Amino acid sequence: MSYDGLRSLLPKNDLLGFAVLALLLVVVLPLSLDIFRLNLVGKYLTYAFVALGLVLCWGYGGILSLGQGVFFGLGGYAMAMFLKLEASSPENTAIQSTPGIPDFMDWNQITELPWFWEPFNSLIFTVLAIVIIPSIFAYIIGVAMFKRRVGGVYFAIITQAVAAILTILIIGQQGYTGGVNGITDLRTLKGWDIRTDEAKYAFYFLCVFMLFVCLFIAQYVRKSKLGRLLVAMREMEDRVRFSGYDVSNFKIFVFCLGSAFAAIGGAMFTLQVGFMSPTFVGIVPSIEMVIFCAVGGRLSILGAVYGTLVVNWAKTTFSESFPELWLFAMGALFIAVVMAFPNGLAGLYNKYAAHHVEKLLGKKKGQSPDAKATVGTQGVAHERQ
Amino acid sequence: MSASNTDFVLAVEGLTVSFDGFKAVNDLSFYVDKDEIRVIVGPNGAGKTTVLDLICGRTKSTEGSIKFRNKELTKMKEHQIVRAGVGRKFQTPSIYGDLTVFENLEISFPRGRSVFGALAFKRDAEVLNRVSEVADMIFLSDLLESRADLLSHGQKQWLEIGMLLIQDPELLMLDEPVAGMSVSERRQTAELLRRITKDRSVIVIEHDMQFVAEIADKVTVLHQGKILAEGSAEEVKADPKVIEVYLGH
């Protein structure tokens, strides 16, 4: 991509934002936290993938999905299935009545690896499946809903129902899915022990890298005409339709993209946390993810990352001291965000801090007029929502 | 019912739509010529807006045929009808308030209308020229970088007209384009309409009879979903039936 292309993709203010986040995640946190805490941050970051997808779907496109846990789960389960198969080699499972299959299958009197587990012996298939299966699933839901012009609250409720159904399915089919315990006791990735500190560091950086890949994709979409179309659709869907666009296709696209992001997050979760279970699929985690996005500011892709980190850090700190109060705090937080600062952290930043930063930047480098214009319109766009 | 092919830009034949048995438009037939400005008038609830909704595909007809350049529209989807060359302005200004005037016009530019087309869309010279050309026409050249919801009501109406112009439709449908405008804005709009209606057919819904007389080639008076009278503005004004149900009060 040309220099101009890059500049229009990442104007000065956005570039600064990306750089600060990169500095924080790549340098500051790894140097200041021990591996236990850093691994926790890595876990939080996996939710940021979901929140990022929600910024595009909900913040830009106005499509509120309360079932993103489904896609997080599908990605996470795909990864877990591969790792579980590797951990279930005939030598490791010699004491089972059927060696060579995952332990929970053996406990459930299953004597043969189910057909849909077979392909997960391949790492390449698994990596592709992590992105493609959730995208196809999102595509099917998207076509079924958006082509019929189901939207708004109805869409939110249906996605929530899907999350509930998938949870019930996973729990009910214990022999095939590991049931309520999930898929646990994951050990190695191509022979490399994933439980060591070294592996945890590696996965943390892989997670940060993938997050930035997704952030760049999101930034590209946001800056393209498609990003502006999403905003236009959110406001005046009929006008977009009567300007010659098939509105449903754009909704399907952004929903699939958000789902693919969530799925990558899910896979990163499995790698770093070492298991996957239905607790991360259902209604509650799906709603939590919407809260992360709202706290960060639903129009800000970087805000989504900060929102996720802040809420999760609060959750960990808070529930270490007052475990029973956390859910109330979370509810209160959501109400506070909606009532007091609907643009979330990004909104607060734009209102109180952005012009100081701009001043600093301006003094140092002198402001080019075109960067100023971009910053201006963005600031306003943030103010509004 | 299938209508025969004609030389008309728009041929509406036997068009009926019923909502729970109530026929909002009842066996309506009319024809619009190339480059004709047709004004539809009528009392509230006569079915004027419904007719536009039917033509642009927002409402599905119960019966009848709508042919645009001999292409049947009743089976087509909204975006396909737009791409075929029918543009429609809504009664209340429908613009994207969070976007700038420039972006509003750019989105309406007929290129990159598919998902991947929109992702690959580039702001090239053609787009910039066309946007500034249209902005000139609609008196908004100085406001290209303003957010659209900061515009006055009249300016919003113009912006929406501009968003249609940039698509260069062969048939333009305007629903009360001067409603809520000040006198001077009204004058400017009349001038604008005269300019943009060259080389295209236009259907306008309007109440202001003076404005109607100023722009119309032909006037259709609707009443209870049916045509009450059709003819030049003068003929229609003089029609006793029209005076009775519409103009008299």
UniProtKB/TrEMBL annotation, chain A:
- For the region Disordered, give the residue spans: 364-385
Q: How does it sit in the membrane?
A: Multi-pass membrane protein
**Name of protein:** Urea ABC transporter permease subunit UrtC
Q: Which GO terms describe its molecular function?
A: branched-chain amino acid transmembrane transporter activity
Major localisation: membrane
What is a single cellular component term in the Gene Ontology annotation? plasma membrane
Q: Which UniProt keywords apply?
A: Cell membrane, Membrane, Transmembrane, Transmembrane helix
From TrEMBL, chain B:
Q: Which UniProt keywords apply?
A: ATP-binding, Nucleotide-binding, Transport
Alphabetized InterPro entries for the sequence = AAA+_ATPase (IPR003593), ABC_AA/LPS_Transport (IPR051120), ABC_transporter-like_ATP-bd (IPR003439), ABC_transptr_urea_ATP-bd_UrtD (IPR017781), BCA_ABC_TP_C (IPR032823), P-loop_NTPase (IPR027417)
SUPFAM superfamilies noted in UniProt: P-loop containing nucleoside triphosphate hydrolases
The record's section on PROSITE patterns has: ABC_TRANSPORTER_2 (PS50893)
Q: Which GO terms describe its molecular function?
A: ATP binding; ATP hydrolysis activity
This protein's name: Urea ABC transporter ATP-binding protein UrtD
Its transmembrane ranges are none
Cite the Gene3D superfamilies for this sequence: P-loop containing nucleotide triphosphate hydrolases
Its Gene Ontology cellular component terms are: plasma membrane
Q: Which gene encodes it?
A: urtD
Q: Which Pfam families match?
A: ABC_tran (PF00005), BCA_ABC_TP_C (PF12399)
Tree of life domain:
Bacteria
The ABC transporter domain, residue ranges? 10-249
